[in-house]
Amino acid sequence: MNPTEKHEIASPEEAATFIDALADSGLLFHFDDDPADCLAAHNLSAERLEAIAYNVDQVMALDWSGTAYSCPFDYIIRNHS
């Protein structure tokens, strides 16, 4: 998954794939912050930053109950710290 392209993220498993792709690309940031601010040093286009924000909004809207993680932050802490 290319994290700088828009995706339809409909499950925590798909969210985990997106988060992993961000991390693998060196683009993981705190999802409460604006990706344009956090990723400014990466010189991403406005379209790519918009795609990241779009994907993050979907990740944050998911219900993570029934998974091993309570929320996206829990997933990130346990897998990317």
Could you please describe the fold and organization of this structure?
This protein is mainly alpha-helical and 81 residues long. The protein has one domain (12-79). Helices cover 51% and strands 0% of the residues. The chain is built from 4 helices and no strands. It has helices spanning 12-24, 35-38, 46-61, 72-79. The longest helix has 16 residues, at 46-61. 21% of the residues are buried. The mean pLDDT is 97.
Annotation keywords:
single chain; 81 residues; 51% helix; 0% strand; globular
Order of helices and strands: HHHH
Low-confidence stretches: none
Gap between N and C termini = 21 Å
The overall average pLDDT, rounded, is: 97
What does the main sheet amount to?
none
Work out the helicity level: 40-55%
**What's the total number of strands?**
0
- What is the alpha-carbon Rg in Å? 12 Å
Q: Strand pairing plus helix content: what structural class? A: mainly alpha
Write the layout of secondary structure elements.
Blueprint: H1 12-24, H2 35-38, H3 46-61, H4 72-79
